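anyone seen this seq b4? input:
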Amino acid sequence: MTLRAARQVLVAVCAAIAVCTVYVTKSTAQSAKEIQPQAQSNASPIYGITIPAGYRDWRLISVKQLTGAEGKLKQLRAQLGNDIAIEAFRAGKLPFPDGAIIAALHWNEASSDENDKVLAVGFPGAGLESFVAGSAVNVQFMVKDSKKYAATGGWGFGDFTNGKPGDEALHQTCFPCHEPAKARDYVFTRYAH
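predicted toks r here
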């Protein structure tokens, strides 16, 4: 191969690499643009909260039962916290430090015939009834960032049903609901020791 032919091959290879680089860069940029709206559609309105990865592995803060509406509302609820939230709860630290996240998991309460039968054998005549978590209602998050969410006591909120955020009207009710707990940094939940 002559020197001139070698240069032509080298130029052709460089041109091919340049075209491939432009194509890959353009494809990557387009993919990022396609992913962006999807990611934002999974964020709560107003606050931009998304469901944190691995939140179901966080530690338990407390459990609750919520009833009302003439017996029509019966829910079981569990509150979980990331490490920052758990440390603050254990230390009794208020206000909560930035980075604290509290998750509230809500289920419809369901009676358990299976458990009732076992209890009837184990504790005859006691009339014990068992209730368990039934169908999922929603999951809610409080995220502490005192600068980003200064207008709402330092907390951002997210309410999700089946992995999708509720609408803006629902999220506008979050902070007003938590305002009565201002003395506890807007957190209703108390740590169950």
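The chain is about 35% helix and 25% strand. Residues 3-39 have pLDDT under 50 and may be disordered. kinda curious what u guys think
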